[in-house]
Amino acid sequence: MGFEFDQVIIWSKNNLFRDAAASYFQEKGFESKPVLNGSEALTLCSKKSMNLVLAGIDKTVSDIDLVIKKINSLDKNNKVIVFADDSSVETAVKCIKSGAGDFLIMPDTKEDIKLACEKIFKMESSFNSGEKEDGSDLVIGDERMKKVFALADQVASSRAPVFLSGESGTGKEVIAKYIHQKSERTGPFIGVNCAALPETLLESSLFGHEKGAFTGAVSRKPGKFELADKGTLLLDEITEMPVYLQAKLLRVLQEGEVDRLGGTETVKIDVRVLAATNKDPGEAVEKGDFRTDLYHRINTIPVKIPPLRQRPDDIEQFSDFFIKKYNQIDARNVKGLTGKALQKLKTLKFPGNVRELENIIRRAVLICSSDFIEDQDIVTAEEFAGDGKASVNAASEDVDFSPRPLKEVEKELIFQTLNETEGNRTQAADLLGISVRTLRNKLNLYKSNMDLP
Question: Could you say which of 44, 263, 264, 318 is the most buried, measured as most Cβ atoms within 10 Å of its Cβ?
């Protein structure tokens, strides 16, 4: 399974860009929605999950950062790629800081626009399908991680379930894909985040549905299990799956067959299932959030991934890898890190782990003014946005603490936390002390009242 976005939104006032990009994706058979402004793009994003937004902007678009943040806050599976006439570093930094997936220079011709869309399509299809690769670009420096990958090599050829646990951003999906790549399975790799979809959609997404199974089911749709036939299915954040669906999942694992919603016949499947969580699965079992029988079924090979702050050798190697990557993407020529910059990196806690390090390095590549990244170029998202711990504490003395409704304060705190975690709902929920399901329900409540730019 390749390109997995529910819809592609082409946002631009540039007729050439809008028409050429929309034409490309329509030719590929995907729903394409051309819009003229950020308000229309946000409205479409609020109606579906997993949106790819191609934003072709010029200097008249002053609120691109706000729109990107709001699109990402709607669903972490959304992705915004910016094409801009303005090629300045300031514009690129502004977009990347706000959560854009990439920043590209606006092509001049219809053919170049379609070529750019083709590259995006192939990149996303390769990422989603988990095509077999040789693994030569893996970054492994830490001895504990070498042991993790050695274990992955040992179990790759078997059908034994693997249960990956570790903090968000530690590389659980990378290892899951590595296991698939090293296996002899001929089907695709497909990942499903069980916390990212509402309960009503998760069941249909996993097991599929027949035409007429529910309102809006206008045709038969196979689920992820069917699509992953002969391949590997990663159930990410599995402890967030509703308990009643866990029972259905257990039956699928035991019988090797699925029942589509509204169907009368079972469908045989051959799928290797991997599971992942950023929670303590044993604690989830004790709380009754995770079925004991399902836990023992998928916990044949438990793999615990250490956080990045405990892997200093990986910090250096990942940094070198990301510098080379973003030199190429952002047309920069940074040669590396100074010793002080590397030491500063190794003192950071990295609550976002590898994802956070990647963002820090990309920011450093963009703002670096010399051949080497200096220690002052190493800034966290909070520092870069000017709202880090120190500034928050300092500002607290000047904040107007006039009484406000609790719901208003709660909403503000939720969006501030999402901004701090760069749209990562799982991490935000952890920081807020609530479940991802509770966070998702609150965000759905806010959607209908969201102010659009």
Answer: 318
Q: Torsions phi, psi of 406, nearest 5?
A: -60, -40
Distance CA 366, CA 350 (A): 20
Tell me how far apart the alpha carbons of residues 9 and 55 are, in angstroms, rounded to a whole number. 8
Main-chain phi, psi angles of 230, to 5 degrees: 70, 5
pLDDT reading at 62 higher than 50:
yes
Sorted by sequence, the CB contacts under 8 Å of residue 39 that are 6+ apart come out as 452, 453
Fold of 309-379: Helicase, Ruva Protein; domain 3 (1.10.8)
The CATH number fitting domain 390-447, selected from 1.20.1080.10, 1.10.150.20, 1.10.10.60, 3.30.43.10: 1.10.10.60
Architecture category of domain 7-129 in CATH: 3-Layer(aba) Sandwich (3.40)
CB–CB of 225/273 below 8 Å? Answer: no
Using one digit for the tens of pLDDT, what is the confidence trace for 396-420? 333 344 555 667 777 777 877 777 6
Compute CA distances 404 → 110, 409, 431, whole Å: 52, 7, 23
Report the pLDDT averaged over residues 252-265.
89
Q: Which tokens go with 80? A: 């915004």
Q: What secondary structure does DSSP assign to 242-304, as a single string?
A: -HHHHHHHHHHHHHSEEE-BT-SSEEE---EEEEEESS-HHHHHHHTSS-HHHHHHH-SEEEE
CB 42 within 8 A of CB 452: yes
* pLDDT at 2 exceeding the cut of 90: no
Please check whether residue 195 is in contact with residue 177, taking contact to mean a CB–CB distance below 8 angstroms.
no
Say if CB 161 and CB 298 are below 8 A apart. Answer: yes
CA angle 320, 322, 326 (to 5 degrees): 125
Please enumerate in sequence order all residues whose Cβ is within 8 A of that of 22, keeping only pairs 6 or more positions apart, or say none. Answer: 8, 10, 32, 33, 34
